[in-house]
Amino acid sequence: MEELKKSPVTWTFIIINVLVFLAMELTGGSNDISNMVRWGASFAPLIQEQGQYYRLFTCMFLHFGLEHLGYNMLILYFVGGHLERAIGKVRFLLIYIIGGMGASICSYYADVLHQNAVVSAGASGAIFATLGGLIWILILNRGRLEEISLKKLLLMALLCLYYGFISTGVDNTAHIGGFVLGFLLAILMCHRPQHRKNQSVVSGSEI
User: Fold this and answer.
1) Tens digits of per-residue pLDDT, 18-63?
2) Torsion sign (Cα): 57, 131, 81, 171
3) What is the phi/psi pair of residue 119, to 5°?
4) Is the separation of the CB atoms in 117 and 46 below 8 Å?
5) I need a labelling partner for 92 at 20 to 30 A (CA). Which of 39, 57, 131, 203 fits?
């Protein structure tokens, strides 16, 4: 309950993703491509030819299977709360949504450029935006925030990117795009060290 009070936006996103996943499982399954498309997964031909741009947003809340959902929500739980507590609910919300949609747009244009007709979904574009934003906050705070250090977070980001490149069916364009956008958005919105509480030292295609 205390976690929910401290990081309400992070937990709201986690709950929404889980509820949407359960609804998808009840209406055809999250590994059914046609069901993913019905629920709003990103699919370049429908966006380009029919103007269904809403998919660049809705795809952020859809996941291919329980493993995909669990992996993304676990990372969001760890990094989202730290960023939300550091910069506040509104700025965190903006980084997550704008960074996530920006990641979807990067992925869409990459698909159009390479003529890939791939169904894409997942929250990791927004999660990588959160990672990018948190790295900037750690830089402002001289490498430490709560119990997270800049070195540990950079290692985590590199491992996540590496996992994407060695895995099949992972949208690395969305990951990199989200990370860069999150970092830049944090630079634009945050210019001073953030207040640090409880700190011991003065951190388809799956998107």
Assistant:
1) 999 999 999 999 999 999 999 999 999 999 999 999 999 999 999 9
2) positive
3) -85, 120
4) no
5) 39
Q: Do the strands 42-43 and 119-121 form a parallel or antiparallel pair, or are they unpaired? A: antiparallel
Is 114 annotated as catalytic? Answer: no
Rg (CA), the chain: 17
Is 203:148 a contact under the CB 8 Å cutoff? yes
Tell me, rounded to whole angstroms, the distance of Cα 71 from its chain centroid: 11
82 is an active site residue: no
Distance CA 154, CA 121 (A): 25
C-alpha of 89 from chain center: 16
Please spell the DSSP secondary structure of the chain, one letter per residue. Answer: -HHHHH-HHHHHHHHHHHHHHHHHHHTT-TT-HHHHHHHT-EEHHHHHHH--TTHHHHGGG--SHHHHHHHHHHHHHHHHHHHHHHH-HHHHHHHHHHHHHHHHHHHHHHHHHTT---EEE-SHHHHHHHHHHHHHHHHHTTTEETTEEHHHHHHHHHHHHHHHHHSSSB-HHHHHHHHHHHHHHHHHH--SPPP-TT-S----EE-
Catalytic residue among 30, 124, 203, 205: 124
Catalytic residue among 63, 68, 82, 175: 175
